[in-house]
Structures are given as structure tokens and as C-alpha cells.
Amino acid sequence: MAQIVRLTTKPQRSGQEEAAQAAEQLSLLSEELLKHLPGEARIAISRATHALQKAARPDTTEGLWPGGFTMLSRMQTAAIWDGIRELSSDDRPNQVRHAFDLVLLNLRQDTGEVLLTRDQLAERIGCAPKNVSTIMGTLEKMGVIRRERRRIEGVQGRGMAVYFINPHVAWNGSLDVRKAQAAETRPPMQLELLQGGAS
């Protein structure tokens, strides 16, 4: 039986190689250097790296799955949906669910970082930026995401909030990296409760 093969032209191969080289160069930026960059610049570098990685491997991301894909744990995701439905109306369950969906659709490959700023989340959820912290805080309490602070040079305060998905819930990228991250991360609270664990 004949096998269907996706043809790749010489210019396409050349473009993929250039994208791979550019992604590799960006990955060489040291964490020490990145710490001194403005938060928006770090997010821009993350997005550029992710886009270049996809361009370098179109058959595994954009080619076969337009827009890329995210791997989900069905059990954890269902538990989170149930947990969100049980939230009181004061906790904005509809907006929390929308935020969770946006998180799943905007993950950086191999780190699980959410590639949306607070303002972008607010615009897509349809709420004020000040409410994003509360909404994401609810997901954080549930164990769905974790939050880090990145200092912005020249700006006072704790720094910009950056979110990461719990690797027990979803992942975009290498399974080996996901396993390593999951080994250091607890499952979401709702899943532990379903399994009879303590909260």
C-alpha cells in the first residue's frame, strides 16, 4: 500500500533550518541576562522562541495540527471543570472557566508558561485587568496554575505576575520535560479530593 508523504520544497527546508537555528540562539540566552530584561521583553522572547520551534517542525505542530496542540489529562481536566462549576457566584465561575480555557490554548512549549499578559487575559475574558489577579488566583488555589514574579528593571514592586500550568493537567512540548516537571509538582486539589486525599 502506498504511503502518503508530505513534500517539502528546498525553500521550505531552508526556512525550517533557519528557524531552528534562530530558536537555538534564543535558547542560549542565560537566565541571568533574562532576569535583567523588562518583563514584556522576556515574554516576547518566549513567544518568539515558541514560534520559531513550531516553524522548524511544521509536520509535528502547524502542519498536521493547525495552531499546534496541547496534551490534556482527561481525568484532571474533568476534575477542574467540576471544581469550577462548584464555585460560588462571587468567585466568577464563568470567568474562571474562560481563563482556564485560555491558559490551555496559550502555553509555551517545554515550560508550560502561559503566553498571555494580564491585559490580554482581561481583554479576552471580558473583564477589568484588576480582576484577572483574582480569577487567576482562584485557579492557583485549585492547583491548576502556579504564579511567579519577574522583576522589571526600573519599576518598583514585586514584579510582573507570570503563570505556569500544572504539568499534571496539560502540557505543550516534550514528554520528558513534562515528566520531570510533574515529579516536582503536586496534582490539583480537586483531583486529590476525588481520589480521597486530604485537601
From TrEMBL:
GO biological process, one term: regulation of DNA-templated transcription
Entries under Pfam families matching the protein: HTH_Crp_2
UniProt-recorded Gene Ontology molecular function terms: DNA binding
HTH crp-type domain span: 104-153
SUPFAM superfamilies: Winged helix' DNA-binding domain
Top-level taxon of the source organism: Bacteria
Database matches in InterPro entries: HTH_CRP (IPR012318), WH-like_DNA-bd_sf (IPR036388), WH_DNA-bd_sf (IPR036390)
Name of the protein in its database record: HTH crp-type domain-containing protein
